[in-house]
Amino acid sequence: MSNTYLVIDIDNVIACTDEVMRDVIKKYSVNHVDFCYEDIKHFDYAKCLDRQGKRLKEDEWHLIHDKFSREENILRIQPYSDIQTHLSSLSDAGYCIQLVTSRLNSARESTVTWLNKHEIPHHGLHFVKHRCKHLIFQNCAGVIEDDLDQAREFANLEISSYLLAHPWNNVHKTEFLTRAQNWEEIVDILVSRCKIDGECLNVAD
Questions:
Q1: pTM of the model
Q2: pLDDT, tens digit, for every residue of 48-107?
Q3: Among 21, 52, 53, 66, which lies 20 to 30 A Cα-Cα from 38?
């Protein structure tokens, strides 16, 4: 696998998924759990409490995930501001943009439609099992994630991993793990790592 590959998650990295997911949870959960963004302190929504102290029941997540994966919900997710420009900048710098998601297979067609609708630049799209990305992409230039545990798996392989900052992924910077406040910061770091000829380096910053 080429070490110019840049492995990029979709949800809450290039897509503002959390807002739609919280809406689906409020609509379909038994207790109408009403999360705000700051309530999501864990990657796993089932571990979070809303402002009234309510949480999802143990057996609710599969139903919620299925509802979220419907086309009407996938297509109402908004992309991050200027994400097309950011991804194009990385591609122009020599990176091969590989979008890698753990969405359900039932969301595959609507995900492709969403990417086309918003003209998201990419060279490949992959659906993989939850937190198994590092088992497939073991020779890549870097990773952009929102899932701290998944990013750590890549960092343990000495692959530079970048977390887009959210309440659920607070962490101190390490040699191969960086938490960035915005996409501009990520692009600046990654573009600076590329050789003049466009070949990307897999080295820590």
A1: 0.93
A2: 999 999 999 989 999 999 999 999 999 999 999 999 999 999 999 999 999 999 999 999
A3: 66
Spell out the domain ranges in the chain: 5-16+79-192, 17-74
CB atoms within 10 A of CB 52: 10
Return d(Cα 3, Cα 146) in angstroms, integer: 21
The CATH superfamily holding the domain 5-16+79-192 is HAD superfamily/HAD-like (3.40.50.1000)
Burial of 86 (0-12, 13-18, 19+ CB in 10 A): buried
The whole-angstrom separation of Cα 139 and Cα 189 is 19
Assigned token pair, 148? 């701290």
In angstroms, what is the C-alpha Rg of the chain?
A: 17
Say how far apart CA 191 and CA 113 lie, in whole Å.
29
